[in-house]
Amino acid sequence: MSRRRHIERLLPELKAYAYAISDRREDGDDLVQDAVARALRAEAPPRRLGEFKPWMFRTIRNLNTDELRKRRVRREYLARETRLSGETSDDPKHERDMHVRAAFATLSSEMQEILTLIDILGLKYDEAACVIDVPRGTVMSRISRARRALRDRIIGGDSDKRSTS
C-alpha cells in the first residue's frame, strides 16, 4: 500500500491521538499536518501499515514534545529578559545574572553554541550532536570545556585566556 493510502487510512486515528496529547484542537491539527508532511518527505518510511502506524504516532509525539520544549524555553527566556531589562536592583541574583551574561559573552562562539543547546535549551547530548553534526563524545568534551571556561570567568579565573575549541 502506498504512503498516501496509509496516511488516508490512519488520519482519524492520528487526529484523535494528536488531539489527546495537545492542549488545543488547533495544536492537534498542526501536529497532524506536520507529521503528514514529514511522512511524505521521508526518504524511507516503513512500508507496511503495521510499522507505519506507530512510526506516525512517534512522529506526532516527538513533534509535540519539541513544541512544548520550545514554548517552555520561550517563556523562560521572556521571563529572564523581562527581569534583566528592568531597572537595576540591589538583588544579588540580578547582579549575579548580569555577571554570568557578561562572562558568557566572552566565550568563543563554539562554546556559546554548546552551552545554549545543552544548558539553556535543554537538548540531550545526542540531540545536540545531531544539530551540530559531531559525535556525542565531542559534544560531551565541548560542554565540559565550555562549562569550565564559564566557571573560570565567573569566579575570576584567567579571563584573558580564551579557548577556541
Question: Which helices and strands appear, and what pairs or packs with what?
Answer:
Layout: H1 3-21, H2 25-41, H3 49-85, H4 92-105, H5 109-120, H6 125-132, H7 136-154
Helix pairs in contact: 1-2, 1-3, 2-3, 5-7, 6-7
Write up what this structure looks like.
- By secondary structure, the chain is an all-alpha fold.
- It has 2 domains: 3-71; 87-154, Orthogonal Bundle (Arc Repressor Mutant, subunit A).
- Helix content is 76%, strand content 0%.
- It contains 7 helices and no strands.
- The longest helix has 37 residues, at 49-85.
- The radius of gyration is 21 Å and the shape is elongated.
- The N and C termini lie far apart (50 Å).
In the residues, how many domains can be counted? 2
Element pattern in H and E:
HHHHHHH
The assembly state of the depicted protein chains is single chain
> Are there runs of 5+ residues with pLDDT below 50, and where?
158-165
Q: What coarse outline follows from CA principal-axis ratios?
A: elongated
The chain-level structural class is mainly alpha
Helical content, roughly?
over 70%
What composes the largest sheet? Answer: none
Please report the total strand number as a whole number: 0
Average per-residue pLDDT, rounded, comes to 84
* Terminal Cα span: 50 Å
Strand content: under 5%
Domain RNA polymerase sigma-70 region: 7-72
InterPro entries: RNA_pol_sigma-70-like (IPR039425), RNA_pol_sigma-70_dom (IPR014284), RNA_pol_sigma70_r2 (IPR007627), RNA_pol_sigma70_r4_t2 (IPR013249), RNA_pol_sigma_r2 (IPR013325), RNA_pol_sigma_r3/r4-like (IPR013324), WH-like_DNA-bd_sf (IPR036388)
GO biological process, one term: DNA-templated transcription initiation
Family: Belongs to the sigma-70 factor family. ECF subfamily.
